[in-house]
Write a structure and sequence with these properties.
This protein is of the alpha+beta class. The chain has a domain of 251 residues: Rossmann fold, CATH 3.40.50.1820. The protein is built from 11 helices and 35 strands.
Length: 650
């Protein structure tokens, strides 16, 4: 029996659920509350073993299971790290896995960006069945070295996370670690004027970035053209909003870098950069609609660790323009055989290139892993195996005009059924980030319960050019103003197109999205029946004051104009005119719980209608939301939308 079939047959029993034949009803919310049942699948360098991370019970922590590729129905070797939780694993040799672990070490946060977890590195020898933990707290993986078996490069902040050095420009210290013996070798000590090191597949440092505090400039250095010393090759003012990101180098000609940069244009493109003349070379690829987001490396990183084979951009899906014809042909073949193919990627490959693991994710696939071994494709399992493709929702990438004429791209998740639907706008957090809705669990959960979901890429969103990003703050902070219009105008567009019912509209967001939900609740030209605000910034000044003294350059302009000039929900409480559901984790380090507490007090003082749900032990980030948190979150949201959203519910 193949592993894929075996896992799918038993997952319901493992998680304590019974498969339900309810094709005309929404899934139980328990299904959506599960953390990823399977993740982080990878094949060993020799192709003899495949490992995967699995959460075997709904309340359990991840374990690693290692199977022989020629005996997938055999008993796996299982690894756990109790009392620590496995966050990530990676092969570093034929028989050795490296791991990153975390453990909750305190009950409350110790201030802004001071969470309740500590992190460690560990390794396990699957032949000796021996686990080894390394005592360097806060270590970060820099490179799994394909050219040096059983070795990795890691870095950490000297003095720990609370060291005064943290205020400097990432002055990390770098070591090479032999994960089999536990011995480590100092490679480099970072400093303010030269940090952020990059290492090639053999562990040699080739790129560094620093900050010239006197000139107020970021500085890039390389050792590709002269291995004996660092050579400065580029400077950029800290006041510049343009992107300059070194994505790789030409392995056939190391004097040529591949750089994602604006270089005077609105959209970031992929450029060659000539290290002999320290100047931009040819433009490799650029688009008129979206920024280039990076490069694609060769799928066999054991043999071709540093080889760039394509350029990546995001416009509704992840798209790759390949330079390498073999890699392109391989990708196209896989897209033909993987069910519900949307974003298909080889996520690991054996050294000989013959065996590989494949990952697919899309609107009708929460994320599925496959093994291709000896010419046979086997399904290993899904992140959410209880969800069926035909009961999930389609996602459309659309564009609409805001009231001032700006074009806003958006993702629309469409419930199964006939419009018009009750609709929810779900703005992303950030706000200055790029969003890609390949498979969005919150949007799919809401669509499964009958709600149309709009995810607008409102002004300030990244990936759509400099002007779109800067329009959120260059003419004063537009939070609660034009940024809010973008969200409302998207919902009105859906109404006009017949997709959404104008009497059944709501807004839900997390972090900045939660802030937008609070602002929406006090708008006088009200189009929503209710607002659901998760981890929301309620006091602009309190939030920016956490880090105001550390801001400089372009980041200072961005953040201060955004938060100083935008509407503050706390100052708008008396204008609230719809019911609000507030949700907040009690150990949120990014938007501390004081935001929810101050806003609740203000709502109560003004006799406004609201409910509050506190997620005990939840931080700001999705990887701290366990089954109990997500179950509470989803049950609270769906019940609120049904019964308390407006006069008759949504």
């Amino acid at each position: 029996m193949q592993l894929g079939r075996y896992f799918l047959l038993t997952v319901g029993a493992l998680l304590g659920f019974t498969a339900l034949a309810m094709e005309d009803k929404p899934y139980p919310l328990d299904y959506w509350a599960l953390r990823h049942v399977i993740s982080n699948v990878a094949i060993s360098p020799d192709g003899n073993h495949v490992a995967l991370m699995k959460i075997p019970t709904k309340d359990g922590d991840p374990i690693i299971e290692v199977y022989r590729t020629d005996k997938l129905d055999g008993e796996p070797y299982r690894i756990n790290s109790d009392p620590m939780e496995i966050q990530q694993f990676f092969w570093v040799g034929n028989d050795v896995l490296g791991m990153r672990l975390r453990q909750k070490v305190r009950d409350k946060i110790e201030g802004f960006n001071e969470g309740v977890y500590e992190y460690l590195l560990a390794s396990v020898d699957i032949k000796r069945q021996k686990l080894k933990k390394y005592d360097q707290l806060g270590a970060e993986i820099e490179n799994v070295l394909p050219g040096k078996e059983n070795r990795i490069v890691f870095s950490y902040l000297p003095g720990g996370e609370k060291s005064k050095l943290k205020a400097a420009f990432r002055p990390r210290t770098y070591y090479e670690l032999n994960v089999k013996t536990g011995t480590k070798k100092l490679l480099l000590r970072g400093k303010l004027d030269m940090g952020q090191m990059e290492f090639d597949g053999d562990g040699d440092p080739w790129l560094a970035r620093g900050f010239d505090i006197g000139e107020g400039e970021f500085v890039w250095y390389q050792r590709l053209t002269d291995l004996a010393r660092w050579n400065e090759f580029y400077r950029q003012s800290e006041d510049s909003f343009e992107t300059f990101t070194v994505s790789g180098f030409d392995t056939e000609d190391p004097s040529t870098l591949f750089v994602v940069a604006h270089n005077g244009d609105d959209k970031a493109g992929l450029w060659e950069f000539d290290l002999d003349s320290n100047s931009f070379g040819e433009l490799v690829y650029r688009r008129s609609d979206v920024d280039v987001s990076g490069v694609r490396f060769h799928s066999n990183d054991w043999r071709h660790a540093d080889s760039v084979v394509g350029v990546v951009y995001q416009a509704g899906n992840v798209e790759v323009e390949y330079f390498d014809e073999v890699e392109m042909a391989t990708q196209q073949q896989l897209e033909q055989v993987v069910p519900n193919a949307h974003y298909v990627r080889i996520n690991s490959r054996s050294r000989d290139g013959k065996s590989l693991t494949i990952y697919n994710v899309g609107p009708r696939d929460p994320g599925t892993y496959y093994l291709l071994h000896r010419g046979k494709l086997t399904k290993l399992g899904s992140r959410q195996p209880l969800l069926e493709a035909d009961r999930l929702a389609d996602v459309r990438y659309i564009k609409y005009k805001a009231r001032d004429g700006r074009i806003i791209p958006a993702y629309m998740t469409i419930p199964n059924g006939k419009p018009p639907f009750p609709a929810i706008v779900m703005p992303h957090g950030g706000p200055f980030v790029s969003e890609l809705a390949l498979y969005d669990e919150w949007a799919q959960m809401l669509a499964n319960n009958g709600y149309l979901v709009l995810q607008p890429q409102y002004r300030g969103s990244r990936g759509l050019g400099l002007e779109h990003y800067q329009s959120a703050f260059m003419d004063g902070g537009q939070g609660g103003k034009k940024m809010q219009d973008d969200k409302d105008d998207g919902m009105l567009y859906l109404v006009d197109q017949g997709w959404a019912d104008p009497e059944r509209l709501a807004i839900f967001g997390w972090s900045y999205g939660g802030y937008a939900a609070l602002v929406a609740a006090s708008r006088e030209a009200q189009i929503y029946q209710c607002a659901i605000a998760g981890a929301a910034v309620s006091d602009n000044q309190m939030q920016v004051n956490y880090y105001r003294s550390r801001l400089r350059g372009a980041g200072k302009i961005e953040q201060l104009r955004m938060w100083d000039d935008s509407l503050s929900p706390l100052e708008e409480v008396t204008k609230v005119n719809i019911p609000i559901l507030l949700i907040h984790g009690d150990v949120d380090q990014r938007v501390p719980p004081e935001h929810a507490e101050k806003y609740r007090q203000a709502l109560a003082k003004s006799n406004k209608s609201f409910e509050y749900v506190e997620l005990e032990g939840a931080d700001h980030f999705s990887n701290t939301l366990f089954y109990r948190h997500q179950k509470n979150l989803y049950e609270s949201m769906i019940a609120y939308l049904k019964d308390s959203c407006g006069p008759d519910g949504l």
